[in-house]
Amino acid sequence: MGLDVSFSRSGGLPVHTPVDGSVIGAMNPETAASTDAAIERAVAAFTQWRAVPSPRRGELIRRFGNLCRDHKEELSCLVTLDCGKTLDEARGEVQEVIDICDFAVGLSRQLHGLSIATERPNHRMAETWHPLGVFAQISAFNFPVAVWSWGTMIALTCGNAAIWKPSEKSLLSASACAGLLARACEDFAEAPAHLHQILTGGGDVGAQLAADPRVSLISATGSTRMGRSVASTVAARLGRSILELGGNNAAIVTPSANRELVLRGVTFSAAGTSGQRCTSLRRLIVHESVHDELVGQLKRAFSQLRVGNPLEPGVHAGPLIDLPAMEMFNAALDQARAEGGTVHGGQRVLAEDYPDAAYVAPALVEMPSQTPIVHTETFGPILYVMRYRTIEEAIAMNNAVLQGLSSAIFTDNMREAELFTSSLGSDCGIANVNIGTSGAEIGGAFGGEKETGGGRASGSDTWKAYMRRATNTINYSTDLPLAQGVRFDAA
Ligand code: NAD
């Protein structure tokens, strides 16, 4: 059976592929009434799904993961059409969905609580974990399916019903994934109708989900601007959110660094996915003794990268998501020049072949210091390079921005590596040694601090955010001792 891409019916708003700018479908956005009805259906689905034992819930996730395995190549093509990343990277993204499914299946047998020492005789105290309610996922264009799977596979395993509001810019792969999940539910007796629903639309649909008290947990991935709006809306109703927002990620290159690792790690992190990963490398902080030589090597490495149609083999980087993204890219380079930067690369390419698409050469920008533009996340392949003298200065530069997602140090010096990963080191949610800032594995908790939002979407023990914790104190005596020795003998 092939993939169902049901959103692409006629009418509605056009959806473009970044590959050549052509129209690949149409979106009929939800109305306020249809979004409201979907939330109501999800509440009903939750009341049934929460009663299903979690290992059985995991079985549903296993089925979905296997369907993704069967359709990996088709899904990968849709991811490339949706967001313009190379086919190889798209395959990596679909593999991430499959990996998260495996992780969730294992988790379905390990949703365990603690037993805790109690001060009262013949009492028992324990923590139990229960399904939370309706989970809503808002996702960004640049990881059109992986980000959804991080949250939704965990949420479903934990006994929640789920709603997905994918980016309005990347609907093909989202629609196909939702179709595969629906197929997994089809002959799965315990799966209630509307256990998972996909809602198409823009920020207004996401904002409605954020505002609705029937949504117990909302996970929002995207820009800091969007996160600020979701956070304040959810906070006003004292709800729960997981925020996965923008990054401004740095790597420090020390004198002892293995140059081969630096060149490969930096080039992939900065130019891969055309700089459109939340973890893309945007700032390179290089020791003054190796700065000039490294800049020369990186200029050569950048100029050898093949920017082109991401469906073709051998291409390193595809287009930016759309022409407005290219305008922002150009504006950032202009601002960098005005702030004293020297720009290498960064020109538009393939304009004749693809006039409606936004192909650009990655830009390496030598900066005198971390000026205002260096503090800004521009979603494209721009790498700002600065010098440092002491390791303390380099760490301070790493931490000087408002975002706190990913960071790295390249060094063979154990003291520098340990300092960087210590409490005095990087203040980011991800701190790597001798690898780049992007390309995280699913086993670790993923997310960042400060304006990145503080959320952790998946991996490690993040499942706890998707459940409700209850503390149970059970008295199996015939006495009623009060905690802290309090006496109340009225009866
Ligand atoms: P975006 O903020 O424009 O849109 C993201 C999603 O939010 C879309 O589905 C959009 O419709 C929705 N949205 C927009 N306004 C909203 C509102 N007021 N209320 C509710 N929903 C709203 O982001 P984008 O351009 O799609 O993605 C790029 C951004 O995402 C970058 O900043 C990148 O760093 C970030 N990102 C972060 C992570 C992470 O894990 N930290 C992962 C991927 C992308």
Automatic annotation (TrEMBL):
Active-site residues, as the UniProt record annotates them: 244
Pfam families on file: Aldedh
Coiled coil segments of this chain: none
Protein family: Belongs to the aldehyde dehydrogenase family.
Database matches in SUPFAM superfamilies: ALDH-like
Keywords, ordered alphabetically: NAD, Oxidoreductase
InterPro entries: Ald_DH/histidinol_DH, Ald_DH_C, Ald_DH_CS_GLU, Ald_DH_N, Aldehyde_DH_dom, ALDH7A1-like
Taxonomic path: Bacteria, Pseudomonadati, Pseudomonadota, Alphaproteobacteria, Maricaulales
Protein name, UniProt field: aldehyde dehydrogenase (NAD(+))
Cleaved signal peptide residues: none
EC number of the protein: 1.2.1.3
